[in-house]
Amino acid sequence: MPILPVYNMDGKKVGEMNLADTVFATNINEHLLHQAVLMQLASRRLGTAKAKTRGEVRGGGAKPWRQKGTSRARHGSRRSPLWVGGGVVFPPVPRAYGFKMPKKAWRQALRSALTAKVKDDKLIILEDLKFETPKTKAALAVLNNLNVANAKTLVVLAEKDENVTKSVRNLPGVSSMKTDGLNVYDILLHDHLLLTKEAVGRIEEALA
């Protein structure tokens, strides 16, 4: 069972927390991590590319020249794919690139990503994270106290907090989200994962 220190906003250790083995100490399945990242990136693609076939290109009703006697190859339409300005043989059409993973596979991928952060000592637990007013300087001070100010950091909260969200959003490389939006891609994208104690409990409850 992983035991991690708990820090306050001043960067001082105020206790320890036992993490669930089933969530933060599982086997890291690299295949599922790869599939989860592919799924998220594929779902972000717009899929709006479009080109016209020969049937959709305007014009081409008249035969360019007569069939025989011109010493040139026979053609029936100026909109043939062989011609400049003609249609495309197998054009891209609007489509959805996204696909879905089985729910159990997605949950295991999320556990693998969390376990990887624990093994790399990149997971930090905060007793609480609150600001009276939105202030980027205050958020930067907290990250400095935790020695992660110069790294990509993902801040995860149990509940939506506008003051925290607005305080960190202008810091380069720093993102924030609720536990219900936690995903494999964002965990792997950031160097450090910063969780509040309440957020840890929510994650363990969801993935147990």
TrEMBL record:
Region listing for Disordered, in residue ranges: 49-79
Organism superkingdom: Bacteria
GO biological process, one term: translation
Cellular component terms per the entry's GO annotation: ribonucleoprotein complex; ribosome
Entry-linked InterPro entries: Ribosomal_uL4 (IPR002136), Ribosomal_uL4-like (IPR013005), Ribosomal_uL4_dom_sf (IPR023574)
A GO molecular-function annotation: structural constituent of ribosome
HAMAP family: Ribosomal_uL4_B (MF_01328_B)
Protein name stated in the entry: Large ribosomal subunit protein uL4
Species assigned in the record: Capillibacterium thermochitinicola
PANTHER family recorded: 50S RIBOSOMAL PROTEIN L4, LARGE RIBOSOMAL SUBUNIT PROTEIN UL4M
Subunit (UniProt): Part of the 50S ribosomal subunit.
Biased composition (Basic residues): 65-78
Originating gene: rplD
